Amino acid sequence: MNDKQEKGAMQVDVQLVRDLAALLDDTNLTEIEVEDGDRKIRVARKAGAVAPAYVAAPAPVATPAAAAPAVAAAPAEAALPSGTTVRSPIVGTAYLAAEPGAPAYAAIGSTVKQGDTVLIVEAMKVMNAIPAPTSGKVKAVLVDNGQPVEYDQPLIVIE
Q1: What's the whole-model pTM score?
Q2: Which residue numbers delimit the Lipoyl-binding domain (predicted)?
Q3: For 97, which DSSP code?
Q4: 17, 33, 103, 141 - which has most CB atoms within 10 Å?
């Protein structure tokens, strides 16, 4: 350990911060946050700003979740149609088709088989195919093509 490195000091991955900033530009998001163990990195930009602001902070100590947010989230979840909800596994941009002008992977009323790609979520220039967790008929498509999505956001409902 040298003089510049103190025991317990956080090491910032500059390339990760740059990649997150590029993701902000690509998705028109104003903020993104990632956690890896005890490390938490948040990159934010003021709305309308040209250059993102970089912020790195240690992860807070885990505390029990408050009951109020769970109650507040319940009405939004209750509004979802019944069936199996496909959720975004990552933050990124949702695409309903393989390319512009191509037919959608899964449209309302279409039948999908378990494992079929129902949409793509792009994150950091990587296209992530999102598979159907079950076979059935697409009951609802909850996002638009090219829409930014958050982690665990409901995307499609299959019945």
Answers
A1: 0.52
A2: 83-159
A3: B
A4: 141
